[in-house]
Every structure is written in C-alpha cells, then in structure tokens.
Amino acid sequence: MSEQFDNTAGPLTTESGAPISSNNQSEAAGVGGPLLIQDQVLLEKLAHFNRERIPERVVHARGAGAYGTFTVTADVTKYTKAKFLSQVGKETETFLRFSTVADSLGGADARRDPRGWALKFYTEEGNYDLVGNNTPVFFIRDAIKFPDFIHTQKRDPYTGSQEADNVWDFWSLSPESVHQVTWLFGDRGIPASYRHMDGFGSHTFQWVNEAGEQFWVKYHFKTDQGIKNLTQDEANRLAGEDPDSHQRDLRESIERGDYPSWTVQVQIMPAAEAASYRYNPFDLTKVWLNEDYPRITIGKLELNRNPDNIFAEVEQSIFSPAHFVPGIGPSPDKMLQGRLFAYGDAHRYRVGINADHLPVNRPHATEARNGNRDGQGYDGRHGRQKNYEPNSFGGPYETGQPLWGPTQLTGTTGEWETPKHAEDDDFVQAGKLYRLMTEDEQDRLIANLSGFIAKVTREDIIERAIANFAKADENYGKRLAAAVAELRK
C-alpha cells in the first residue's frame, strides 16, 4: 500500500511545499485582465492535470484489483522447492488484478470477453507473478500471432469500430481458435462478477523440487462463491446502466466483509510423461484432461483489502510471467515464451523503467539488489551503493543456483510448427466442450455465435467459420449454419 499523507490539516501548498494564497482565483493583470505566467499555482495545476494519465494497457486496459492472502493447505514439497509453498498453513500476501482483454479503459465491465487474472505473490524470495485468464485455453498457440489477433479485436483503421468481418476472418483462418471461441460464446463468456468466476494460470509451468526433479503444472482457481454468469441481454442492460458493475461489486463485497475466495488446485505431470501425452501439453489451445491428471487442492486465496488509490495501485500495478521464484519456471509453451518478454517491455514503456519501485509492485520481504540505477522516476533508494558486480565493497553477489531446472533440447533452429501429439487436432477438444453442454447451454451458445457471425458481410468468411465448428461437432455446425441463415434472410 502506498505511503499515507495528511491531506486535511494545515494550509494548501504547492508541490514544493509553499503555502497557496488562493485556490479559487488565478492571478490576473488587473481586475478582468489577462492571466499572468508568474502564477505558479495555476501553471503547476494545469501542467499536472495534463499529465495525470499514462498510456493505457494495449490489452487488459480495464481492470479492478484487491489485496489478499494465499494460504497453503496441502504439502507440495515433493513437487516444488518454492518457499511460499513449503509448509501447510503458510500465508503469503497477494494482489490480484482482474480485467477485460480487448476493451479500452473507458469500456464496460459486462461484455463478452475473456477476463484477465493477474496474481502477484509477495513471497520471501521475491515477487512471483501468475498471469492468466478466466479460461484454461486461448485463441492462438504462438506469440507471433498475438498482435494480429488483438488487431482484429480492436478498432478497424478505417471505420474506427470493431468489425465482425475482421474478427471472423481471422478466427476462420485460425482453426485453433475454435476451442476458446466455443468457451467465450458459451454461458461463461460473461461472468456476473469477478467474484463468481474461476481463474487459471492457463499456460503450463515448471515446478522443480529440492532434489532437482521436474514437473509440469497447470493452475486452477475455483471460485468459492459459485459460478454465476450473465446472458447477453442481461449484459447489454447492465453495461448501459452500470459500466463499472464488476469493479463496484468487488469493492463493495470487501467493504462489507464478504471476502471473495478461491480454492487453489493444480494438475501435475511428471516431466518425463510430456513427450507421450495424448495432447501437446504446451499447446495453450488445449487442456489436460482431468481424468489423466486430476486436480489437487493445494491452497486458499482470499481477497480482503481494497486499494486506497485506483491509479497508484491498480492502474500502475505491473505483472510479468517472467517474475519467477526458486522452484518455479517456464515451459516451452510458445505463447508463454513470448509473454516472458512482452509484459515487462509493455510496463517499461507504459509506467516507466522504475515501475518495480512503486509500492504495489515492489517485493515485501526482500529488496531488489542489482546495478540498475537512474531513469525516470528513480528515487535514489540505493544511495552511495556501488552499481556494478563483482565489487569488494560488500555488494550483492550471484548465487549460482538457477530458479528452475534445465530443459533438454534437440534439433536445429527454425520456424517450426507446434509439434502434434497422438490425439492433437484443432477441433477435438472444442467438440468435447460442446457435447458437455446441456441442451439449454447449447441453445444459448448457438444464439450468441450466430448473432455475431450474421453481421459478417462476406459469405466466404461465414462459410469458413461455420465449417470449423462443424469439424468440432457435426451437429454444432448444422445448428449454427441454420441459425445464421435465419438471421440473414
């Protein structure tokens, strides 16, 4: 939490501490005359006001957040040496930021969009950031396609609006998206609140124990409030009546002591089993079946404190999948590999090179010790300390102990497609998801999808999109084709 200042007692002052004579009239050249450039109160206020906003996030711009506690409830030391997971009952402070993905900062909470799930653990070994979504899968499997995908979700360069043609042209030409699109246009596509949805690490990560044994892991956060969703009609109404609905619900629930919580579970795969698993375990468009790797409950996450200042603690909060601690590391997931760079780079541009020094972002139980100095926003915290390594003045030193285990590599460099495993294709899991739905759920899915596809102006794009759903399930495709045709009569 940011340092508290007394803003009530004593006279108003400028930023430099000088008392302010008048905060209601600007200094003028005589009664009714023009204003004077020597009025530093006026100039300071206007200059600061012009700079109050920072660039919004390109994605996940609109969000809300809260502080909380993660508590370990099961022994996982045979899988990871991470200290914050080292004993049952151990508590770690957290900060969780929820968000919509594609909308701008001025959008509405109740819209059909994946929800970002960015969780910061303030551990004794530094900050660990787990940056995922409220869905276990995603639209694409390679980070090189992410800018293209987001461009289809944002405003068209000519019309200035999101265009159905762009969205469905890209999705229909990217059949790996069918699984996530089925999820998004189903009932869970518009959560009723941030409290009433699950969260996922989404990617596959590495855990390594004290003996050096490696495991692949997926994170699941199961809401203890129960799943609640909005229909499209309910969402349309709520977005107009209360654009801040989800942010308001989160804040008010914590204010009244109704602290939201999630049961934390993991799926764990011994590293040696990855090569022979039925699906590529590092493909973000696929899940691991629970029948193959059952979820194991390991902890409880509770949110119990609201931020005091949204801009300082939510807007300026930064998260990076590259923020690991000993015992946890990355996987060969191509989307994750790209995000390891992209998130940190985005924050260095958006918040500044010293964004990690802000209270919401800095480690709690340790401090950053390195040679990084200067740059905009630097507060001189290192004083006279030397800014190089090695040095003989008592400076920090390297440990020689990597955070995670090595990954065995073979072959030659190249622009390779993601390797396919025995049961891999782009449609099998989307078909499974469709067939798991009740008839009513399928009806709403078809209605949501057909309403959007019917807005597409080109028949070839429509045909291509429907063909992908038919490959996932024949009935799925037939029902969708009939619904779109009816809407386009």
Task: Give an overview in words.
By secondary structure, this protein is of the alpha+beta class. It has 12 helices and 10 strands. The protein has a domain at 63-141 and 190-357: Catalase HpII,  Chain A, domain 1 (Beta Barrel). The model has no long low-confidence stretch (mean pLDDT 94).
Quick description:
This protein has helices at 40-50, 146-153, 164-173, 178-184, 232-241, 245-255, 310-315, 334-350, 428-436, 439-453, 459-472, 474-487; strands at 63-72, 91-100, 115-123, 126-133, 199-200, 205-208, 214-223, 261-270, 296-305, 328-329.
Structural class: alpha+beta
Beta-strand content estimate: 15-25%
Largest sheet: 10 strands, antiparallel
Radius of gyration, CA atoms, in whole angstroms: 25 Å
Question: What's the tally of helices?
Answer: 12
Give the uncertain stretches in residue-range form.
none
Share of helix, binned? 25-40%
Number of DSSP E strands: 10
> Which homologous superfamily in CATH is the superfamily of one domain?
Catalase core domain
Fold-level CATH name of one domain: Catalase HpII,  Chain A, domain 1
Order of secondary-structure elements: HEEEEHHHEEEHHEEHEHHHHH
Globular, elongated, flat, extended or rod-shaped: what is the shape?
globular
Query: How would you state the average pLDDT, rounded?
Result: 94
The appropriate CATH architecture of one domain is: Beta Barrel
CATH class of one domain: Mainly Beta
In angstroms, what separates the terminal alpha carbons? 57 Å
